[in-house]
Amino acid sequence: MDNQDDHASFHDMSLSTQEDWQIIMRHNIPFAQNGGQRILDHLKLLDGDFGGFAVDRLTHSLQTATRAYRDGRDEDYVVMALLHDIGDTLGAANHPDIAAAILKPFVSEKLLWIVQHHGIFQGHNFFHHLGLDRDMREQFRGHEWFADTEEFIDKYDCPAFDPEYDTLPLEFFEPMVMKLFKYPLNSIYKRAMETEAAE
């Protein structure tokens, strides 16, 4: 049975008190620190969803991360590679934006830029087959992370549709995901979360 004494008392946020927020933060800290598990659960929704590709979306994600890992990329990069298409289930029209929103508090600006723009950069390989401008990414030519994003596509994302590739399982990446999503690097709530966790 839920303990009502462990709930905030307000019904209108403008009437909330410091005591209310201490109660809420006691719940929020462990919930937030377990975000990695919710990310993994959502990633599993890509399993079996082929969308016409040679491998399902989960395999593509795992294969992209596997290629990055085997190339010696650091864990943050590998997790970014793993999650770059996590938005496919919720944002078919803007999946890079979904992945970027999820990763934003936890990765560097460079990795955020790569994941946010990977769709346009990948488009160089197929937009012309859809009547779109394959050189759409040229609008970003000269940006400090243009070459890094191009490399992500060419080395990891683009070739990761191979049913014969020796792809690592999701379990291999779970510790990396759990570690990355435990504490945000950037968040409007970061200081409050750190203060509450220390008490």
From TrEMBL:
InterPro entries: HD_domain, OP_Dioxygenase. It comes from the Bacteria. Residues 57-119 form the HD domain. Pfam families: HD (PF01966). PANTHER family: HD DOMAIN-CONTAINING PROTEIN, PTHR40202. This is HD domain-containing protein. It comes from Sphingorhabdus profundilacus.
